[in-house]
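Example 9 (inverse folding). The structure is encoded as follows.
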């Protein structure tokens, strides 16, 4: 039995395990029908022409963990932003860990999707937001919707500023020979509210893991959402991440994606403008080697006038690594005075590394300022020679150039402790100890 057949046959058993209302049952049923019809994407699909899932779908993934596993905080502390106090929503093999988590209902909700989907007091919010911005035609989003049960539920009410960042952490113990998990996150930032969120997926051993994640984020009028994704997993971990962000008038939303580890990582990031004077920021740094693959697929849908979007992705590829950047800016006829920028810069450190870049503009308005660009090259040999002539060893000189290349993205991190952590991760990835922070 292949993975698709296993998932289809498991659907009824899954629904019997979860307590859902009729509306959610109907949503799930439609979603599993769409996945049954479309199946897993292949390279024949235009959006997936550079990324094949065949190698990972051969694994005999368990779709339900057999038992709840416990972890000691000391063993996983390094995966948290422990330098500061944060709210934490932690899952072990897809199951909520109350021991490692720090949730709240004091003025804001930082808790579980399973509670929000089953408790009557959340029904109005779930009916209004759940599965409303997600792409219902996408097969992997549909698969996640069909099995949606657990994940983070974050609701910041109007005029509320979250007093500390929120960490969403998914840990895989490897107690299963191969495990597939499908977290579903719902984040609502009310009018004039603000929140900072850090998301991480981490495997603790080398058993294969496939994570099919969907996150819906709703940013209301004059609200601010600042989201960071840290992807530094082991070489047997695979992540498919679908994030959908809907923004109302005068809102500001940013997503920073740091892709350093994992086998296959696919980031689908979709922004939808639903009001004027919206600001959207999409930035990322990718540093990979060996046979790793990172695929960024972005969409900013400018549907209203006077909005701004800024995309800036940096990639450093070594070994036999493959990078993909497929970014689209879509400007509808009504979206006059749009200001949209998209840039993708890549450095290849190896003759065997590959980058496939496809920046796109589709503009149907006539009073706009839109630009896009892509560069692919190697390290500046003259700069390397200059630094080495000043006594800087070749390895450190190379790392300095890589830091300078990445600095524009690093500088926009708004949490100082996270900025330091990312700087150290980059230094570790490059195999040096720089002795300073950017």
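The amino acid assigned to each position is listed next.
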């Amino acid at each position: 039995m292949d993975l698709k057949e296993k998932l289809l046959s498991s659907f009824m058993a899954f629904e019997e395990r979860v307590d859902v209302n009729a509306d959610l049952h109907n949503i799930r049923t439609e979603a599993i029908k769409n996945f049954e019809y479309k199946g897993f994407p292949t390279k024949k699909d235009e959006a997936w022409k550079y990324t094949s899932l065949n190698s990972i779908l051969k694994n005999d993934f368990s779709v339900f963990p057999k038992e709840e596993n416990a972890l000691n905080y000391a063993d996983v502390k390094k995966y948290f932003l422990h330098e500061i106090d944060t709210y934490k929503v932690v899952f072990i093999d897809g199951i909520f860990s109350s021991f490692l988590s720090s949730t709240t209902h004091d003025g804001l909700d930082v808790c579980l999707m399973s509670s929000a989907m089953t408790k009557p007091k959340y029904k109005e919010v779930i009916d209004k937001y759940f599965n409303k911005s997600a792409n219902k035609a996408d097969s992997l989003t549909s698969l996640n919707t069909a099995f949606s049960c657990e994940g983070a539920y974050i609701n910041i009410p109007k005029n509320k500023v979250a007093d500390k960042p929120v960490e969403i952490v998914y840990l895989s113990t490897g107690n299963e020979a191969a495990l597939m998990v499908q977290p579903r996150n719902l984040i609502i930032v009310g009018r004039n509210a603000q929140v900072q969120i850090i998301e991480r997926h981490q495997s603790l051993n080398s058993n294969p893991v496939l994570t099919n994640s969907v996150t819906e984020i709703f940013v209301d009028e004059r609200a601010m959402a600042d989201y960071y994704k840290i992807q530094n997993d082991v070489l047997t971990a695979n992540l498919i991440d679908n994030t959908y962000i809907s923004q109302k008038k005068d809102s500001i939303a940013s997503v920073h994606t740091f892709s350093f580890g994992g086998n296959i990582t696919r980031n689908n990031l979709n922004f939808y403008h639903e009001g004027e004077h919206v600001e959207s920021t999409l930035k990322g740094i990718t540093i990979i080697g060996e046979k790793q693959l990172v695929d960024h697929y972005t969409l900013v849908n400018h549907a209203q006038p006077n909005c701004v979007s800024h995309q800036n992705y940096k990639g450093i590829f070594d070994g036999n690594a493959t990078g993909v950047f497929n970014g689209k800016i879509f400007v509808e006829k009504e979206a006059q005075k749009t200001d949209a920028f998209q840039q993708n810069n890549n450095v290849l450190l190896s003759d065997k590394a590959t980058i496939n870049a496809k920046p796109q503009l589709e503009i149907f308005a006539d009073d706009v300022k839109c630009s896009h660009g892509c560069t692919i090259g190697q390290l500046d040999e003259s700069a390397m020679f200059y630094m080495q002539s000043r006594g800087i060893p070749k390895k450190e000189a190379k790392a300095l150039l890589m830091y300078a290349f990445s600095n524009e993205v690093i500088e926009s991190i708004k949490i100082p402790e996270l900025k330091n952590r990312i700087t150290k991760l980059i230094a570790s990835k490059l195999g040096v100890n720089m002795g300073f922070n950017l």
